[in-house]
Specification:
315 residues; alpha/beta; FAD/NAD(P)-binding domain; 7 helices; 24% helix
Length: 315
């Protein structure tokens, strides 16, 4: 490691989705001179979505990548220093905290805001990747509205899949729900609701073979994993609801998490178990996972960091 690369900052923000950029806006306005590293996917999950219609202040909707450019420009205008780079290792055992960027540059920080988000789990089909944003989505709440009055498919067997199927059933004529096994993992009450909803059609023991369509989703081909029989269902959208993976691995030695890797914060705050380290956005939110809630928690993290630094006499 190159020791000449060591740098000292008041507030280090790791991640650049709505949470990270909002934290940067608030921290910069409070004159905390924040430094933000954008990570592997600058702009976060919104850069792989197309139309965003449910974020306040955009009456005509906006493209996800364009919205994140707006967030970044606003943070920069307030004085946040935004850099490209990936946090690859941390040491939160001593203060100031140590964070290594791209395995070589060491940044020492009086406080850290973790906003690394979560990544949707995908099936791994080439057609899924090709049609992502053109009818393939990992967020029914974000994109279901665009398929109002149409037939859609959803894959998944847990509570999230059940919730999203029920949400889609209120908008779409038929929801084709694909379950890999002969039973669901969802809680009994959620299973009951799904099974009692007349326009949710269940497909048990079914694997997704291929998503069909040249420029947009037109159908899904499924394989019965007992008989091997293939069948095609005409749909306008394909929703993947097999879970999310929080991007939290590098923090595991120091930060308390739940069994799936979501960072635990004190209720009503963004405080982690390490004083001076805060978490905001989807890395600590498995319930809502919306741009607007992520932005709100980014604001909270900046305010929590400011209070912490003030109390310690560091700003």
């Amino acid at each position: 490691m190159n020791t000449e690369a060591t740098e000292k900052v008041h507030v280090l923000i790791i991640g650049s989705g709505p949470a990270g950029y909002t934290a940067a806006i608030y921290a910069a306005r409070a004159n905390m001179k924040p430094v933000l590293y954008q990570g592997i996917q600058p702009g976060g999950q919104l850069t792989i979505t197309t139309e965003v219609e449910n974020y306040p202040g955009y009456p005509d909707g906006i493209q996800g990548p364009e919205m994140m450019v707006h967030f970044e420009k606003q943070a920069a205008r307030m004085g946040a220093e935004i850099r490209y780079g990936l946090a690859t290792k941390v040491d939160f055992s001593t203060h100031p905290f140590k964070v290594w960027i791209d395995e070589e540059k060491l940044v020492e920080a009086d406080s850290v805001i973790i906003s690394t988000g979560a990544s949707a789990k995908w099936l791994g089909l080439p057609s899924e990747e090709r049609l992502n944003g053109y009818g393939v989505s990992a967020c029914a709440v974000c994109d279901g509205f665009f398929f109002k009055g149409k037939e859609v498919a959803i894959v998944g067997a847990g509570d999230t899949a059940a919730e999203e199927a029920l949400y889609l059933s209120k908008l779409c004529t038929t929801v084709h729900m694909l379950i890999r096994k002969d039973k669901m993992r969802a809680s009994k009450v959620m299973q009951q609701r799904v099974l009692q909803t007349p326009n949710i059609k269940m497909y048990w023991n079914s694997d997704t073979d291929e998503i069909l369509g040249e420029k947009k989703v037109e159908a899904v081909r499924i394989r019965n994993n007992q008989s091997g029989e293939l069948s095609t269902i005409p749909v306008s959208a394909f929703f993947v609801a097999i879970g999310h993976q929080p991007n939290s691995d590098i923090f595991k030695p120091f930060i308390n998490m739940d069994e799936t890797g979501y960072i635990l914060t004190e209720p009503g705050t963004t405080k982690t178990n390490v004083e001076g380290v805060f978490a905001s956005g989807d890395v600590q939110d498995k319930n809502y996972r919306q741009a607007v809630t992520a932005a709100g928690s980014g604001c909270m993290a900046a305010l929590d960091a400011e209070r912490y630094l003030s109390a310690k006499g560091l700003v």
